[in-house]
Amino acid sequence: MAQTDTNIVIDHGGSSWSDLWTKEDYLAIWLGFFIIAVSLIAYFGFGPREEFAKKIEAASQVQAGEVAKSPFKTIAWYKADDDVQKLKGSSSAFGKFASHWTKHPGSWKDNPLDALVKSDAQAKALNAKAMPAYEEAKAKAAAALVMAQKAEEAAGAAAFKDQALNDEATAKIADWRAVEKKVASAKKKTSEKAYNLIPSLIGLCAFFIVIFGIGITLMKKSFTEFARGFVIVFLVAVLAYMLGGQAISKQYGFGAEAWGILLGMIIANSIGTPRWVLPACQVEFFIKTGLVLLGAEVLFGKIMAIGIPGIFVAWVVTPIVLICTFIFGQKIIKMPSKTLNIVISADMSVCGTSAAIATAAACRAKKEELTLSIGLSLVFTAIMMIAMPAFIKAVGMPEILGGAWMGGTIDSTGAVAAAGAFLGDKAMYVAATIKMIQNVMIGVTAFCVALYWCTRVERQAGRTVGTGEIWHRFPKFVLGFLVASILFSLIDSNLSVGMADAMLDQGVVRGGTRLLRDWFFSLSFAAIGLSTNFRELAKYFKGGKPLILYVCGQSLNLVLTLTMAYIMFYLVFPEITAKI
């Protein structure tokens, strides 16, 4: 399907075998699978798997012995657990290589160049400044450990049969663990190193030109035109990372995604995006490849670990909110565009940008409609990321309930984890897991929208649609997302918990697929901004209907998600909540 000024570039294509290597959706799958394959081979074929297995086995034996003698987790149990947590596949040679060449600009406060270059003198000065706090935290941890040891010894002297002594030991050990977390946080601030990201960013830009350029060539587009314009798209993404890393911007949750769209729009609507840059604004190619990689992070084992409560919050509330919001937009506020209505509804109810892209492909929404939906999502994500944790703390809401509420309502996966961290580890775990469960709805939503559009909307418009059109409309990259999810779920289920965390999560994902996924998303947002014209967007804002739709839909989402989370986690399945 050719690119036009009004429609998203979506290949629904014919049924020939050539589609597998000439259509955008399939090329996104192959590129995503290539990155996944390289990461799996690098970590499991050449990584420290055997070394990790020995250490994990030793720690497991210690923990088993401690569990056998004590009714609570002892100091030795936690120290063994710490030994396992330190095992990270990303610390291998490949992990360090991948991390170095995919680094994005870091944090800064006053000087933007600090995000790109940090001298040895600057690093030493920062480390020296942070050292007193680290030493103080270590001293407190040592004192807390002594108290925990005494309490544990007292409980042991009573053969762990005195419940009061057991409770005292458990409390003292918990205090020690809390202080240890502060030590870990303080230690990170004493580990600053000098860096110069400019050479690695140049190399990364060239790498992206090659891998995406191959796809562009297979789609019978000009590699030269893409390569020339891509440099500008990449520079906007780098600048977005820099602005997102600024201290105040980070504090208020205004990250690289929002900055990418904003910067691109400023350029496009002031000096104007040069025509030679537009061939590189391959929004869908970038983000579809990123979404295939996202599948590696959606693990069925982790979904089931949180149990039925999380599934009810994510899979029951989400479709209710989506359908109600769409009906509300059509019947009450009378949205003139059904495609804009459904894209906003899916964006807000499912999981933000990812769902918006898949839904826009299924209903063939216009480029401006997708841009508007994503823009609304990013703005409200930033607001909710700050406002929801503050509200939850202010009203004294239970941590797990607050995490479930945020996981089902905040659109971005990264923002969900960050917001959950404000409340605590349990909230972060619950929020991130529910968002992961919700991500599974991307494929279901895309299929259902394609089915509805072909069987109802198109027919109502007087167009005859064959049954094969459902398959043609279904965004094929979602299949890549699902296959990646199934593959990684199978690998995860066949590894021990410690090995899965060390090699799969801390290796293949965090040291491979996620590094590139983050960049692909940032590139897509920069490309969206650079190809967006305010005058084309203005007509969709007429009467403020998109904003009203989003606010009303999100309000319904907030109420239903909180209600369902409370019922499932505290009334129906309190025993599951107690184990989290």
Walk me through what this model shows.
The structure is a single chain. The protein is 76% helix and 1% strand. It has 580 residues and is mainly α. It has 2 domains: 28-35 and 211-579, no CATH class; 122-193. A two-stranded antiparallel ribbon has the order 1-2. Helix 16 (338-351) packs antiparallel against helix 22. The longest helix is centred in the first third of the chain and has 38 residues, at 120-157. The radius of gyration is 25 Å and the shape is globular.
State the secondary-structure class: mainly alpha
The strand order across the widest sheet is 1-2
Strand content: under 5%
Q: Taking all residues together, what is the mean pLDDT?
A: 88
User: What's the N-to-C terminus distance?
Assistant: 49 Å
Count of discrete domains: 2
Largest sheet at a glance?
Answer: 2 strands, antiparallel
Shape: globular
Q: What is the percent of helical residues?
A: over 70%
- How many β strands by DSSP? 2
User: Unreliable stretches, pLDDT < 50, 5 or more residues?
Assistant: 1-14
Question: Any idea what the radius of gyration is?
Answer: 25 Å
Task: Write a concise synopsis of the structure shown.
This protein is mainly alpha-helical and 580 residues long. It is built from 28 helices and 2 strands.
